[in-house]
Amino acid sequence: MLFAAAASPCDIARARGEAGVSDAFIESFVPDGGEQGTEAKTPLPGQFAADPIATGLVLSAAANNPQLIPEAAAYLRDARTLVQHQIEKLREEDPIIPVAVGEARLRRLALLLRIIFFSIAGLTLLALAAIMIWGAARSHNVVVEVFDVPPSFVARGMTGRAVASGLLDELQRLRDATRSSYTPLEAQSAWASDIKVIVPDTGISIGEIDHVLHARLGNDLTIQGELMETGPGRIALRVRGDGVSAKAFEGAPADLSKLTTQAAEWVYGQSQPHEYAAYLTDTGRDQDALNFLPGAFARTQTDAQRAAIANTWGVAYNDLNRIPEAVAKYREAMSLKPRYWRAWSNLIAAMPIADGEEATWREAQAFNAASDAAPSYDKPPVRMLAPTAVAARNHMLVIRSVLADISGTPGGTGTVAAASNLAASYADLHDWVNARRYADMTAPDDPMKKVITVQISGMESIDRGDFASSIAPLETLRDIWNSSPLIQSYIFDDCALGYAYGMVGRIADADAVFARNGKWSECLAWHGAVLAHAGRQADAEQIWNDAISRMPHLPETYLQRGRWRAAHQDPTGAISDFSAAHAGSPQLADPLKAWGDVLVSLGRRQEALAKYDEALGYAPAWLALKAARDSAARGS
Fold it and tell me: How much is the pTM?
């Protein structure tokens, strides 16, 4: 509404005249000549000149009848002019009025600022409350309360908080040493969130509210305990908690650190059975894992958790070279959880020993098909693709997978270090610089350190055609392999030694090696090559044909037979073999290079260059391949 102070009749008339609003129009909205009820509303000095009720009626009428909008606008301009004119007269008559107006504006500004401040404060408190409630509802922590400790221990500085902190540190160490696809529970002390901010009018701290919310809404496991004297020179550390049955660990006071570790492992195993089992296998305590896993599997409530435990069970068997039992557990895990990529990947890694290489190749194809069909959010991560890549002889993907595994699971303590796996993969790519580099990076205490070092030395000599120099390191590899079930679970055979023996004429020694490892594709391929080199072509062909009939998708036999045919004036047969090897393992560079070599011998250099270039995409550091490609490009 518009208010105006004293204006003379002539002022009103002049303003109405300037606005062009007729008295009849105004009076049509004020009944009985400007009266409302029984009181006339004739403007008097100091009273409101533009009647507020009339103003409202004017606006209402204009809203209902668009034809009246021009006169309504004129009336409003008339009212505004009156207000401005009367304010100027008031300022002339009473200089205190501007001060009062300023004070009123300041009061309104202060009120507005208070409203804004309290609104922001209220929204902040609501946001804080929402964050606390959300965090409490999603909480899965192991909360360690202050332990009860006898006064005699407190006097010596061994407080309940110190004992609880020791348990907390051990739980943290166990969690950090665990490589697992599951996220382990966070271990925290009961006082970790005790933020001393007091809520007004209650005297309750934010930390206390947080504790209440976690207790009511969260899924925390609260661990309590006490340190007791059980006799002269004897103490016992007892722990218990939600879902953790009470157990005491007894020893001498000097053994408190050891007792704390035992108590932490008990809590970890009871509250996080899968994580604890993974920790045991990661740290080489596979027999301890096998002792723990049956009870953990029986206590587990969901199929997803049972699947995880069954998979870790398989890992423990695999580490002990009990491969058929490992395969059975991996399959059990997959039956409990569809598209369990981790268990499926582990199965493919173990299958060559249990079921053979051809079955492994087919399983890898099924894995890849399932991965392609899976929705984007449920595809296997790259770090799980190494076993399928090995089955397909895709060595560059093996390297990518191992590197992804390193970056995705920091802090883990896998039994076989990633560096040794990378060294072996670079050796398969004929990249001896990187192979030696990663062999040197393998930890000195890693059981694979010496294995991978001597293996690379022997294989590099074979790659150069220096078979005599390869024998000594490969014999060392054989001796290590024979003495270690762990090594046998990662390196399936020592057939490279048999190949070296045969190529230097030690056929009897070669036959003995191949007799021990006759089922492997690479062994059969090399055995045939040794026999052919010794002039026993019919025997070589028989072994090669038998290998191909049993393992038609594997490249090694095709590759060795093709090389023999290429060297003995059968380029057509050689190209057929190289084509078959390439079909089974498209990312393997060796068949492509051998194919290019045959094409060069036939004068088909452009086709050879295409094969060489394709091979370089899979083995970019292979020096012999680069030299062959350069020679073909020069036409020499």
Answer: 0.70
